[in-house]
Design goal:
Elements: H1 3-7, E1 27-31, E2 37-41, E3 44-48, H2 57-62, H3 69-75, E4 81-83, H4 89-92, H5 95-102, E5 105-108, H6 110-118, E6 126-128, E7 134-137, E8 140-147, E9 181-187, E10 192-196, H7 203-206, E11 213-217, H8 220-223, H9 227-235, E12 239-243, H10 264-273, E13 277-278, E14 286-289
Parallel strand pairs: 3-4, 4-5, 5-6, 10-11, 11-12, 12-13
Antiparallel strand pairs: 1-2, 1-14, 2-3, 7-8, 8-9, 9-10
The chain binds zinc ion.
């Protein structure tokens, strides 16, 4: 048995939701591990927080982090826009490479823009936002809601601060501070997806918004009281897709390990108790959601 399997538990396959059936107009949502997703439809492909390279623990701590270009190309051959919730390495490392390969725009905070510049992306592919503005994405609209990062490391925000000039590239993990945190609303015209990629959010920013699907950071319930209940009360989603439940240090196509204190089964139950349907999928698993038009 590998030491990993002694230290970490793996998800119980019984927790995964039943397969969803694609229709001609459904929107596909593919989970990439950590907080990463691809939203696919013939009209548009939008990627959120892609982190496929997943170097192991020792490499993450000791070396500059190299995006795995071939793997990024294999998993996400096409993208129109790449949205970043915050600029920590496990949310942004692979984004500039993906934009280079596909020509997609990199959209996010100033910190996100600095990372794009560091990696050599041209200005024309960079869109900086402070949130609270609608950004056209083809016929769809995306909007960042200002948010805050969870106190996810011994009661403190890890790697706090902003990135105000291009960091070294490739970066070491600690050189990527979170910058402005944004919760993304992706309006596909008939299906609204909200992405909450950290263990906290601002009630006032979510109030007045609505969602059909929320991609929700599973470790969040450890770090914020009423995490699930408040999201459901404010956004009234029908479905919640848990993310950020794996350790992020296993190779993408291996069986993932659970974060030691994530309590995923309890998270799923809390979602059900709040009146929503949890849609847990394995890494690279795909879901299909209908558009109401
Ligand atoms: Zn983070």
């Amino acid at each position: 048995m590998k030491i990993r399997q002694i230290l970490f538990k793996q998800p119980d396959p019984a927790w995964y939701c039943a397969p969803t059936i694609p229709t001609t107009d459904s929107v596909e949502l593919q989970y990439l591990g950590t907080a990463g997703f691809v939203i696919r439809h013939p009209e548009r492909t939008i990627v959120l927080d892609p982190y496929l390279s997943r170097p192991d623990f020792k490499t993450t701590l000791t070396k500059p982090l190299q995006p795995n270009t071939a793997l990024i190309q294999k998993i996400i051959p096409h993208a129109d826009d790449v949205l970043i919730g915050h600029a920590h390495y496990d949310h942004i490392l692979d984004a500039p490479d993906l934009c280079k390969q596909t020509g997609a725009r990199l959209i996010g905070s100033r910190a996100t823009k600095m990372v794009g510049l560091a990696a050599g992306l041209p200005e024309a592919q960079l869109v900086e936002t402070n949130g609270r503005e609608d950004i056209a994405s083809g016929t769809w609209t995306v909007r960042g809601l200002p948010s805050i990062h969870g106190k996810a490391l011994f009661g403190k925000v890890p790697l706090a601060g902003d990135i105000t000039e291009p960091p070294p590239w490739p970066p070491r993990f600690h050189q990527l501070k979170h910058g402005l945190v944004l919760n993304w609303v992706v309006d596909t015209r008939g299906l609204k997806i909200v992405h909450i990629d950290s263990a906290d959010f601002l009630n006032d920013e979510l109030a007045g918004q609505s969602a059909d699907v929320v991609c929700l950071c599973a470790i969040g319930r450890k770090h914020r009281p009423n995490y699930v209940r408040d999201v459901v009360r404010l956004l009234q989603p029908k479905w919640i897709v848990p993310c950020h439940w794996d350790t992020m240090i296993t190779p993408l196509e291996d069986t993932p390990d659970l974060l030691p204190d994530v309590q995923l089964a309890e998270f799923l139950q809390e979602i059900r108790d709040a009146g929503c349907e949890p849609m847990l999928v394995p890494i690279l698993g795909k879901l299909h959601f209908p558009r109401q038009r």
